[in-house]
Amino acid sequence: MRKSLCLLPIVLLLGQASASATSGATATSPGDVLSAWSQFVSDKGAAKGFPTAQPKIELRYVVASGTNAAGDAVGCDDFAIAYTDSSGTSGVATGGTARDNPDAYRFPIIVCSLALKSDWAELRLVAAGTGTSGKTISIAEDGTGTGVDVALPGPHKIGRRHKDANGDAELLIATMGDSGCRGASGGQNCDFGWPFQRITELAAEAQPDLFLHVGDYRYYKQYDSHKRWDYWQKDLLLPARRALLAAPWAFTRGNHEECSHHKSGVGFTFLFGVGNAACTGSEVDVEPSWSFDVAPGGIDASGKASDAHRFVMIDTSDEYSSELKGAFTDAINRSKTDSAWWVSHVPPVHLLNYGGKTRPYNGNVRYQLAEAIKNTGPLCDSSRTGSAPCRPSLILLGHDHMFQTVTFGGPSGPFTWPQIYIVGHGGVDLRSANLSSTSCTFRFKDLPGSSAAQTGTVHSRSKFGYVMWRRSVATTKSPTGWIADPRDDQGNAWQPFSTPTGDCDPKPPAPTNPNP
To answer: How far is it, in rounded angstroms, from Cα 466 to Cα 174?
Structure first.
């Protein structure tokens, strides 16, 4: 049996676990499992890529490359998957296949990928040939001698893990973003000033159905760290390793994972990619938009579900790309359903003040969305009945290192533009919107697809945290079909925002750009 691996030490500070991004990696042996998770991927086999049945989910696990003691090259087939399906029947499936490695020198690993069957309820990674009784592979130790085993819920659990107060099935999701640590050279202490591990473990304790991360996983700055495997470990895979096994994840590409020579796009594509942005040679600026459906109570084998909800994933990592128009056009077409959210990184609409100017938009992202809307029609229609007036009803974003919501219309009248929800407060150094109040109003003159100026209610907060969301039959009449539960980095529910006190007059100019 393969020997378990001890990776980077986890520093215990003041009784709270915090992964140190400055610690050196310990030696590994070929065949050691270094990380594992499950993730939603694009349904490439469906017509036009639209969801048709169960969401497509893959198991991915990372193996240290090389040859074993017998002189044989290690590989994905050294492992197997022991599973239990929805009927309680146990079985074993062969291991995954290796993804193409773009840079074996900087990534001395094998990334294995396996499509999970929709009726699998539980699964474990075991050594090949050991059967259903095989010992679960351990990926690391957490400093206390307790191993982290590759055991995780299967696709069948999505929508079937929780019930609301009335006993009806309920979806629970966790959302976060901008989570990496800058390191000493970037001005952030990763031992004392980085709450990302704590945030992910608090969210994982709730056993959500899925995690949504809106991008910017990689910040740590040291030499060519953006291109190296061990810094992906430090910034993401070690501090989040328990949460990565708690539920499937859906990953969006942030601007720090953009496909350019000085960013971490190669590593993102190798580890988490679902599209064709190869980030090598002839580059694709952005990945094609893709989507998946989930539902409280689950989706049956034929693809049927009640109260289904669609997440549309949009790559805005290159905010200056002309390809964004096509990505937004595809996203709008995918959103022609009763309930949909967009999940992306760079906000087309937000409200910040720096350099003496109030910034309500990100220029090119706003422009490309407006161009897409010209061809597809408005995002919101108040005449719609039986569903949210806006499709999408909410756009989940990051990029700004803070929490912010911008809401147009409601609650007594119809919503006139999708709600903006920025969750860029997951771990990297915080920034402020630099407005006069945490709750205020602002008149947005050039909303994409809107013929007239609209007043938005803006709530901002510069604190670390994450947001949990609930959706059941009882909550579908809320503005987005979901009930938000923002929490701080200690797991405490935030106090409700106050009533807006007036216009969002700026404070004195902020000294730096809040969107690095």
So the answer is: 7
How far does CA 79 lie from the centroid of its chain?
A: 27
Quickly count: other Cβ atoms within 10 Å of residue 69's Cβ: 8
Residue with the two structure tokens 């090949």: 128
Q: Provide the mean pLDDT of the chain.
A: 86
CA-closest candidate to residue 17, choices 489, 516, 493, 509: 489
Distance in angstroms (rounded) separating the CA atoms of residues 400 and 354: 12
As given in the structure block, the two tokens for residue 201 are 């473990």
Helices 324-334 and 363-376: crossing angle, nearest 10°? Answer: 50
- Over the range 482-506, which residues count as b (16 or more CB within 10 Å of their CB) and which as e? bbbebbbbebeeeeeeeebeeebeb
pTM of the predicted protein model: 0.91
CA distance 488 to 486: 7
Q: Would you call 381 helix, strand, or coil by DSSP?
A: coil
Report d(CA 328, CA 319) in Å as an integer.
12
At 103, list the tokens.
Answer: 């840079």
Q: For residues 242 and 148, is the Cβ–Cβ distance under 8 A?
A: yes
Look at the block and give the residue holding tokens 């006993």.
167
Q: What is the mean predicted confidence (pLDDT) over 240-248? A: 97
The Cα–Cα gap between 464 and 487 comes to 9
Q: What is the CA radius of gyration of the chain?
A: 22
Is residue 63 within 8 Å of residue 76, measured between CB atoms? yes
DSSP annotation of 493 reads B
Helix (H) or strand (E) holding 365: helix 363-376
- Angle (nearest 5°) at CA 208 between 202 and 210: 115
Q: Of the candidates 461, 442, 467, 395, which has an alpha carbon nearest to the alpha carbon of residue 177?
A: 467
Q: Is the peptide bond before 9 cis (omega within 30 degrees of 0)?
A: no
What are the chain's domains?
Answer: 10-488 (3.60.21.10)
Q: What is the pLDDT of residues 295-322, one digit of tens each?
A: 999 988 777 788 889 999 999 999 998 8
For residue 56 the two structure tokens come to: 């497509």
* Tokens at 21, concatenated: 């991004």
Q: How far is CA 468 from the centre of its chain?
A: 13
